[in-house]
Please model this.
Amino acid sequence: MGKNLKIFTDGLLKNNPTFVLVLGMCPTLATTTSAFNGMGMGVATLFVLVMSNVVISLLKNVIPDKVRIPAYIVVISSFVTVVQLLMQAYVQDLYNTLGVFIPLIVVNCIILGRAEAFASKNGIWASALDGLGIGLGFTLSLTVVGMVRELLGNGQLFGLDIWQGGGALIFILSPGAFFVLGYLMIVFRKLTAKKN
Amino acid sequence: MVLMLFVIAFVCSAAVAGVFQMTKEPIEKAQAQKVVDALRKVLPEFDETSEKKSVAECGVYEAVLGGEIVGYAVESVSHNGFSGDVKIIVGFTTDGTIYNIEVLEQAETPGLGANMVSEDNVLVGSFVGKRAEEMNMTVRKDGGDVDALTAATISSRAFSEAVAFAYAAYLECAAENGQGGVDPSRLLPESDQIEEMELDGVAAYKALLGNEVVGYAVEGRSNSGFNGLVRVMVGFGVDGTIVDVAVLEQNETPGLGTKMCDEGNALVESLKGKSASGVKFALKVEGGDVDALTAATVSSRAYVEAVESAYETFKKINL
Model:
């Protein structure tokens, strides 16, 4: 159990995809204009990541080595399409906001990276936990980035007014994404360094 | 190896196809619901709407209450947004008043242009409740009547353009159903009753005050506008005095010929209050009595021609 717990917490902290591995920057920068959008993107990725990790771990012995990347991509893109259809059916507002970034989860390097680096070498249970850890790490990071940007840029949190009169718009715009990500990375490094 | 890849692809496609079938109905429902919600928001109360029909590159829904058309909702798109298309739906009541506007799709800058979707923003506010024909649908920076969103002029321009497209489609539909974009009473002398009439396929209104005819509002048209048709409604007193002129339809150059729609423009001012029999229907530069709009001689000429054709019809009615 200790080993499994470590797999899970590694995804959250030591291998945090956003602040440590610095993977999946494209959706991170683009969809974190508000806390809710960031969280939605994170949850969609989390789902795809867990499912694809489990399936790829299941198939790791039958997938021939030479065609493993196309096989992974087929599995991943199927789950992404499933997520896309489900979101379109049940949470259309979120679907409209995230737009093109949903189909782009297919090429999110976190997912292919975990399939290649972890799921293809480990068992189902461990792979699921790894997906859950990394996915939650990604979701939390995106939510935090989104919260900071929404608060500084709009004076809101999850759409609720924290103070009146908005904020510095630049945090909602693209440069703000880099500022916030950079500073959060510093904070994250500082905090985790103490623990180690 | 190939077989394995084939099997994986096959199983995956089957799974996706299954989910597609499962979600097909909810997706369609959600999309239909979205349209219905938007219609409820932009239109006055109605029982049902017609199917969407395509008019002037816009989608038009007619709203029916108790068998009568009470409004039109027009979907229109501008391709000149800051990042992509701005798609809106505009509700008009039958007298050409903008009831409400809802943004259906936009990808403008969050916090700037994207504010067009927020509650009570100035952009939507500068349209809602206004009579479309009395508005110049360009932003103030371009000489129009629309308050732009702060730091989002391009988005505001696109939005205004989409409203203007919607209005053009509305006019076309309303005209088909015999509903003009103008309230004839404001073109006529004081009256207690207005009757609709028609002469040679031209719409007209008769104004009565205590059973006595006091005036007529008559439609006039000219095909020689800068961009085609110019349609006006002219109000006459029985003695032939021009009470007022309203533009029903025009496609002139924004900021130049479109000024003919503005309140108190040179064209209207040189006709208003004059006795039509004494007016020489031509521009001053061409020896007539009418002041032209600056840099819009062709449009002004068409306007005068349209007013003259209304006067010809008026003479036939008012024998």
